[in-house]
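Lab notebook, bench 4. The sequencing result for the construct came back, and we need a structural model before the next group meeting so we can plan mutations. Quick request posted to the team channel:

Model the 3D structure of this chain.
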Amino acid sequence: MVSGSQTGGPQTNNPQNTGTGGGEFPVSNFIYDCVTLMHEKLKGLEALQKYEQDAQQGGHQRFAQLLQTVRQNDTQCVKELEQILASNLKGQ
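Done. Here's the predicted structure in token form:
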């Protein structure tokens, strides 16, 4: 199991996390955090879609609209994370 820092990323004495042994990881905390955040946002989007469908089926339009707004915002965040990751992975 990977031990995490306060931000959730792998701990290491090397700020770039470029090693493969002794508690170091082949990706930086930055990349780890971006990937983890994207993963969690995608899981959340899946749940939001289900909740939105449930709200619509239950006749709770106001709640369904709120969930749609949250889902759209999270989708935009995932797209931005994807761009950030792509630009930073090209530079490595």
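The first helix runs from residue 29 to 57.
Will bring this to the meeting.
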